[in-house]
Amino acid sequence: MVQRVIYSLDFEKPMLELEHKIEELKGLANKEGLDFNEEISRLQSRLKKLEEETLAHLTPWQKVQLARHPNRPKSLTLVHLIFDDFLPLHGDRLYSEDQAIIGGLARIEEERLVFIGHQKGESIKDNLSRNFGMAHPEGYRKAH
Fold it and tell me: Where's the CoA carboxyltransferase C-terminal domain (predicted)?
């Protein structure tokens, strides 16, 4: 399994500090048997407000940074979280399978659908095999 590196953007740091304080208090409460529920609740409210304010006032560049965030969920992660069933479909057999484009038949409850997404890798080797999420011409044939 690939170990994920926690990567944060400048505007995320105040929120991460609050999250760290909340986790610290929860750990201390469990370890020492103390009641920090009121303080934890206050910090969680402050965190929620800070998240809302931060996301409401992002600059265009910060929005781009967020869209390109290294820890952003990948298509296959979302496939496993959202769909009840997923049957991957592979290339058109004219050239080769493009690992950057994933697609398949999926089901959410009783609704059947087709899913197409691009997939970056989780490691350097995986990124190279998936061409860093950039499709080759055969990937566009798969999506078509």
Answer: 42-144
